[in-house]
Amino acid sequence: MAFSGEELSNKQVILRDYVTGFPQESDMYVITGLPGLSAYAGFYEVSSPKKGDRVFISAASGAVGHLVGQFAKLMGCYVVGSAGSKEKVDLLKNKLGFDEAFNYKEEHNLDAALKRENARCCSSQHESPWPHCCCGMISQYNLDQPEGVRNLMSIVYKRVHFEGFSVYDFYHLYPKFLDVVLPYIRGGKITYIEDIVEGLEKGPGAIIGLFKGRNVGKQVVVVAHE
C-alpha cells in the first residue's frame, strides 16, 4: 500500500561514488531514503537550528523523528522527545542519546510537560511554541472529522513561526543530504531503527499497528527475499 502523487518504483538508484563504506548494505536504502531525507530537510533546511538550541521532537521514535533527534544531538542541541510507551522512552534516552524523553500518554497536561522540559521545538510532527515545522500528522489521517484549530491568535501573541513542508520539495538537495549523512553512517554516529515483519499476510496488521503507534522506527513488511 502506498499513498503518492508520484510514480512508484521498487528500485532505488544512487550514484556509485556515494554508496561505499556502509556498515551494512541495508543501511544505504533505509537511511538514504525518504525518512532520512525528510529528517534532513525538516531539521537542517526548514528549522535552521544552531548549536545549543533546545529541540523537542514529537513521534520521536518514528521513522523520521528518531533521525531528527540524532541530527540535533550531533549539532550540539539539547534534545527532548515524546513517545507513546515506556519502552520507546527508554530507547530514546538509552540508545539514541536524547537528553530527556517522556510518554505523552501518561501526561495529564501536555502544555505543562513541555514547559517542564523547557524545550524549543522542531520535529517530525516537528511540534513547539517556537520554530514549528510539520511534515506529517498521523494522528489525523484516519479521523472522519480532522481536529479543528481553535487558538490561531496564539500565532500572533506568541510570535509563532509555523511551516509545513513536503520532502518532495527537497529532492534537488539529495546530493547535499548524502554529503552530510554518509560520514555519520560510516562513523557509526547514527543508529537507524526498523520494525520488520515477514510475509505479505502480515501487512494489514503492520499498517494497523503503524496507525496505533505500535511500531518503533520505520515499519517494514518484507514480502520476499531476493
TrEMBL record:
Family annotation (Pfam families): ADH_zinc_N
* Record-annotated Alcohol dehydrogenase-like C-terminal domain positions: 63-116
Please, which domain of life does this record's source organism belong to?
Eukaryota
Q: Name one GO molecular function term.
A: 2-alkenal reductase [NAD(P)H] activity
Q: Which InterPro entries match?
A: ADH-like_C, GroES-like_sf, MDR_fam, NAD(P)-bd_dom_sf
Q: Which PANTHER family match?
A: PROSTAGLANDIN REDUCTASE (PTHR43205), PROSTAGLANDIN REDUCTASE 1 (PTHR43205:SF7)
Report the protein name in the record: Alcohol dehydrogenase-like C-terminal domain-containing protein
Native species:
Hevea brasiliensis
